[in-house]
Design a protein that fits this description.
The protein is of the alpha+beta class and about 450 residues long. It has nine helices and 24 strands. It has helices at about 5-15, 70-85, 120-135, 205-220, 240-245, 255, 320-325, 355-360, 415-420; strands at about 20-35, 40-60, 60-65, 100, 140-155, 160-180, 185-190, 190-195, 225, 230-235, 280, 300-305, 310, 330-335, 340-345, 345-350, 365-380, 385-395, 400-405, 410, 420-425, 430-435, 440-445, 450-460. Helix 1 (about 5-15) runs parallel beside helix 2 (about 70-85) and helix 3 (about 120-135) runs parallel beside helix 4 (about 205-220). The protein starts with a helix and ends with a strand.
Length: about 450
């Protein structure tokens, strides 16, 4: 996408201005989406974006800018503007560019570049809509959306790196709304993968529609959740959003390097119950949060964050490595050429244990089964969180007795890690989007069901 000779000239210019390190991130991004609302196709959108991000290091100071031009003089002009206040005598020389190759494990059979497959996508959404509405007459609305995008990147830097990648993303989102008089409730699922439109083969449109409709119906007639501290069983899959938000971000050098994380000085220490093992893995085949290389050009890897309760690694980008001394983990990510990369999560999850869901529920005399988590808020630095439970049930004398609504879980990430006493076998992943200082990136959360011995539950009474 960018002539290597042009890239080398711009990098040489950056080092001539005194930069320790220079990088060009070239991106071509194509997207297509279709949305169905009220039984009709409501939106069909497509777009193409192209740009080049320029990043310079002066010591631990990061300078970043971008342009939509491939012209050498324009790229040098932006570089000069970035370095204007920090310009100094040259102290580094750029290595010759050496194109790196790797073997991609994320195959794509129906990429967006070969066609948007709009008719097939519309048929899928209509079938999902029909299935949701046929589940119960109280399903008053269904909203479905399919997003497919293709991101081509090319990276050049002053160490001699020249590497590229093409990423194919497909995600389906389904929302069902149930209504009974003035009462309303929703069901939601949004599976996604690092693949093309062949992802639909893994999905059953009818099952997806029925699933979100049943979620909505369960909550429509549910009782208010009781409040207070109690044991909670957190369900598998999207239940992992709590670890992602309340703990995962605290293990990124984005916060660790600034000592803005409570874990910044805990390496090698017990930060969780010994039954807890947590991983951030970018290598999982075709998973939503996977990548071949990160947005700094490093091949991705599997990173064991917590082993038997002990903190064993952080997620480390290039600058995070310079600041902390920890080796990079292939975790440098960004939304697009408009953002400088920082350490970010990929597929982040708690690994399976050896307990069954029935055993966990049977061990609770009075508590909550948070089968499906929803959204929430987290306090950066401390991991204090408040998460809504999308689908919840009361547990009495070791049995699930009735559905609940208005349940929230309130605690801190560090505290919850130590309160986990049982980890299940029913491991599952769920797709999501994660926002941080380098924009919004595809990430996967996950876990088996697990038991938290004591957590504050907020309810409706």
């Amino acid at each position: 996408m960018l002539n290597p000779a042009t890239a080398k000239a711009v990098i040489d210019h950056a080092l001539f201005l005194g930069a320790d390190f220079a990088e060009l991130f070239v991106e071509h991004h194509q997207s297509s989406s279709v949305e169905l609302t009220s039984g009709d196709i409501d939106k069909v959108n497509s777009g193409i974006d192209f740009g080049i991000g320029i990043r310079l290091f002066f010591g631990h100071k990061v300078l970043y800018g971008y342009t939509n031009s491939t012209d050498e003089e324009e790229l040098k002009r932006v570089t000069g503007l970035l370095a204007a206040k920090d310009k100094r005598d040259q102290i580094a020389n750029a290595a010759a560019l050496n194109f790196s190759r790797y073997s991609s494990k994320h195959l794509c059979k129906q990429p967006l570049a070969q066609g948007a497959n709009l008719e097939a996508k519309i048929a899928f959404l209509r079938e999902t809509d029909k299935a949701a509405r046929s589940e119960d007459e109280k399903i008053s609305q269904f909203i479905g959306r399919i997003l497919q995008r293709e991101q081509q990147i090319e990276i050049f830097n002053s160490t001699g790196l020249h590497i590229g990648d093409t990423r194919h993303y497909t995600r389906v989102a389904a929302t069902a709304i149930a209504q009974n008089g003035s009462e309303q409730s929703t069901g939601f699922e949004a599976p996604g993968a690092l693949t093309g439109w062949e992802f639909n083969i893994r999905l059953d449109a009818r099952e997806l529609g029925q699933h979100v409709a049943k979620q909505a119906m369960v909550k429509l007639f549910a009782e208010n959740c009781p409040s207070g501290e109690m044991p909670v069983i957190i369900g598998n899959g999207f239940g992992g959003v709590i670890f992602h938000e309340a703990c995962g971000h605290l293990l990124e050098t984005t916060s660790v390097a600034k000592k803005a994380s409570v874990f910044h000085d805990k390496m090698g220490e017990m930060i969780a119950n010994p039954v807890v093992n947590a991983v951030d893995d970018g290598t999982m085949t075709n998973e939503w949060g996977s990548i071949n290389i990160d947005d700094e050009g490093m091949e991705t890897q599997r990173t064991q964050l917590i082993k038997d309760g002990k903190l064993t690694s952080f997620m480390v980008d290039h600058m995070g490595s310079l600041k902390t001394g920890f080796a990079p983990t292939g975790s440098g990510r960004r939304e697009s050429y408009k953002y400088a990369p920082t350490s970010r999560m990929r597929n982040t999850f708690i690994e399976p244990g050896d307990s069954s869901l029935d055993e966990m529920i049977g061990s609770v005399e009075h508590g909550i089964f948070a089968k499906k988590m929803g959204g929430g808020s987290v306090q950066p630095g401390t991991g204090e969180f408040n998460f809504a439970v999308q689908e919840a049930y009361l547990i009495e004398n070791g049995q699930i007795t009735k559905p609940l609504k208005s349940a929230t879980l309130i605690s801190t990430g560090p505290k919850v890690l130590k309160e986990i006493s049982m980890v299940g076998k029913d491991f599952e992943l769920a797709a999501g989007m994660c926002g941080s200082v380098s924009g919004s990136v595809p990430t996967t959360v996950g876990q088996p069901a697990l038991k938290v011995d004591n957590i504050l539950v907020g309810g409706g009474n």
